[in-house]
Design goal:
single chain, 373 residues, alpha/beta, 11 helices
């Protein structure tokens, strides 16, 4: 399996030569022979001569590659170009994201590869699981910023299984990159938002993510590239994600309300004006509301995942009907259980709770099955 360790650089002349030599002489010999190890440095035309140091290393190591960006593209831009070159030109099966300043411990590379070999498609170097750590000499403000920053992301994105959302030390399967490469071309991922955006999209698409503990250390040479822009862009991204999802929930609620009104009016039409039986009136009114809900959700709530083909429409409409009937059954079961356990005096409460449970389950079914990304 061909492995490319991608190292983005900007003014890393003091570090890059030492890191390449360390990887080649100390780390790669420890890696199982089934992995063919390579290095790709993506340099943003550093004025300090970083690229020249890489070219010197290339004379000693044939598995070192250099991609020189004519203009500075940022961290995300560098990783995108590096991964594209790794997959399209170098034939990579696995790619690493790694800093040039030795803050990412090269010794754990074999652990990353073991996780990938066991079926994971994205492996994170985590500072916040057992065995991981952040520098002891960091100031209190920096420690709090790092810890609470990750906690904030986990809370807002409501995903607690992953402990380190902002880590820049990762191993990525080529299959995962191919699934995300077009989405990651957007300008919002050109900087440090790349890390959170890439991980969030991988999680949403159901790829297998694993973590290995790392002891993060501060750089010895050069200056950190992190600044206020990193915090601002990160907060903007995670809150915009939540806003989009809340808008979808609001649309879902509006569609459900319209369906309820159609159900009520149709029942009166069939039962009172036309004179059909109660059973037939309920059935016809319910189905009209289902037709309304399905089409409004397809055209409005989930329009970015709209079902267009006739075959898909028929299949998904059948699934939608089953989910709607299931919701109706939940309401009846909830009413029955409530009355049996607590009596008739709280009938409205039983109805509200059972409707709430049904709506929650329906939304999950709609997003995960019927209008699955």
């Amino acid at each position: 399996m061909k492995v490319i360790v991608i190292i983005p650089t900007y003014n890393e002349r003091e570090n890059i030569g030492k890191l390449i030599e360390h990887l080649e002489t100390k780390i790669f010999p420890k890696v199982p022979k089934k992995f063919e190890m390579n290095i790709l440095v993506v340099d943003d035309s550093s004025p300090d001569g970083t690229a020249e140091e890489v070219r010197k290393a290339q004379k000693s190591y044939k598995n070192v590659h250099l991609l020189l960006n004519k203009k500075k593209s940022g961290l995300g831009g560098a990783y995108l170009k590096g991964m594209e070159k790794s997959v399209d030109e170098l034939g990579a099966d696995i790619m690493f994201e790694m800093d040039a300043d030795f803050s990412h411990d090269p010794e754990v590379i074999p652990q990353f590869l073991q996780k990938i070999d066991s079926g994971s498609q994205l492996v994170l170097g985590s500072r916040y699981i057992k065995g991981g750590s952040i520098p002891e000499d960091w100031g209190v403000h920096r420690k709090l910023l790092s810890l609470f920053g990750n906690l904030t992301i986990r809370i807002i994105l409501t995903h607690f299984a992953i402990h380190d959302w902002t880590t820049g030390y990762r191993a990525v399967s080529s299959d995962l990159f191919q699934a995300l490469r077009h989405e990651m071309k957007r300008d919002e991922f050109s900087g440090y938002t790349w890390q959170i955006g890439f991980l969030h999209k991988a999680v949403r698409k159901g790829f297998k993510v694993a973590e290995v503990p790392i002891k993060f250390v501060d750089r010895k040479y050069g200056k950190s590239k992190l600044g206020v822009e990193y915090i601002k862009n990160t907060l903007f991204y995670i809150f915009s994600i939540r806003l989009i999802e809340l808008q979808q929930v609001a649309k879902f609620a509006v569609v459900g309300t319209i369906g309820f009104i159609i159900n009520t009016l149709a029942f009166q039409l069939f039962r009172v004006l036309i004179g059909l039986s109660a059973y037939l009136s309920v059935t016809l009114a319910f189905e009209l509301s289902v037709i309304s809900n399905f089409n409004l959700n397809n055209l409005w709530t989930f329009k970015e995942r709209k079902i267009s083909s006739l075959r898909g429409y028929v299949s998904k409409f059948f699934q939608f009907n089953l989910a709607s009937v299931g919701s109706l059954l939940i309401q009846n079961i909830g009413m029955f259980v409530g009355k049996t356990l607590f009596g008739d005096q709280y009938e409205l409460l039983y109805l509200v709770v059972s409707i709430g449970i049904g709506l929650f389950l329906n939304y999950l079914i709609y997003t995960k099955i019927i209008w699955k990304k």
